[in-house]
Amino acid sequence: MSSVTAPTGLLIGGEWQQTQKRIQVMDPATFTVLAEIGDAEVADGLDAVAAAHDAFQTWSVTPARQRAEILRRAFEIMSAELETCARIISLENGKAWRDALGEATYAAEFFRWFSEEASRIEGGFRYAPNRDKTIITDHRPIGVAYMITPWNFPAAMATRKLAPALAAGCTAVLKPAGETPLTALWIGDVLQRAGAPAGVVNIITTSQTGPVSSAILADPRVATLSFTGSTYVGKMLLKQTADRVLPSSMELGGNAPFIAFEGADVDAAVSGAMIAKMRNGGAACTAANRFYIHESLAEEFTTKLESAFAALTIGPGIDPANDLGAMVSVKERDKILELLQEAVGEGVVATPSSTVPELGAFISPYVVRDVIHGSALTRNEVFGPVAPIVTFTDEDEGVRMANDTEYGLISYVFAKDPGTGVKLARRMESGMVAVNRGLASDPAAPFGGMKESGLGREGGFAGIHEFLETQYFAVDL
Ligand code: NAP
Predict the structure, then answer these.
(1) Residues 399 and 467 in one domain
(2) Residue 353 sits in which domain range?
(3) I want to staple 179 with a disulfide (CB 3.0 to 4.6 A). Which of 151, 250, 288, 477 is the partner?
């Protein structure tokens, strides 16, 4: 068993609890077992809710300054131990070392940002227009938050929820993805070391995700659900939360268009494409999924992208020499290969850019030329290193194809200058648009989608409001 320095129990009420049944966590690059962790039953999930509910009584009235200082300490601990965090991320997720280190840094920043936001929660005061009363508004912590996170960013998706929740005065029960629980358990340990009181953060890992989650969502002590994952599971959970009219924040799937318009700088577009597509090996909700390239740029862009893909080194992510690590599992790798097969069945040629190691859930990158808008590779979230290229001639046609999806998380626009880029960006039906660059995410920016990509925003000034309830007092003064 390879060694990782993460706790392996359930974190409930400040104690690490072991369970009789265990779950194995695998390294997808070597198929070795990294650790055996706790397997929560429904009763453990409800114990975690009870612990969070008890802790809420004091945490919600703990001065914001004190909450901020704990989050700040969490930021400092994490920043001092970035390599430990990156090692766990890379080993359990498979991603390249550079991506893992980048994620650890990004994840720590949520603790810093929300440590700063904790003491800036605003209230309001104004007169009613007819002056018969004053309107005083307050924001109070909503209560116990249930959080479910995906495997593709096991650290950042956890801190992007935990940091604002704790800053707001909420307590948490976090359930990380089955493939990547160790990073979340390590973050739980960081928060304990930073001084989070017992029960403020509880973490459960389980092989019975459906029943455990349903029981937690049905518990009246739970006040909100914060979910990041696929649109399919998000919709299923929204049906459950409807029964209790439970506020729900949903960060769901994407199918991001990358459009290079006439006049765009091809080299800048290729560099942007490498980041937008290849960060995390393409397993990002924000990954550029479909490339619409103006006919005047298409040949040069495609040839240069093919060369950049072919130059990538592929192998275990833990080795810093590799640009592209393993996919998280064979199942996820095979989903991508099946989509490529479907595309080939539709008539395109899909040639791998490189060979891959025999052992491990590796996949070669692919640039796929002459793809038709509406085909399999443009309709589905590919979630891997595949770049389908569609050529367009007319600006309106490019915009129409980009928006022709039920998703609306992010778009990438490359134009001849920033002014033109912003004009085109306003036509994109997505919650975020990167203009002439391949990366948009920032802890200080509102992250979230339109259409079926989600409800609500995380990060920025908006993120803390997912964990606050507005209360209004009508007062005669
Ligand atoms: P997923 O299959 O939806 O799983 C996400 C989480 O939901 C996991 O923790 C999973 O637990 C849990 N889950 C599955 N079935 C459940 C159920 N019946 N009840 C309660 N929870 C359940 O997604 P994924 O494959 O891990 O992640 C990839 C997806 O996430 C992509 O679509 C991607 O675009 C999206 N994503 C979105 C964002 C964003 O911010 N918008 C960020 C990252 C990823 P188990 O692992 O235990 O099954």
Answers:
(1) no
(2) 256-442
(3) 151
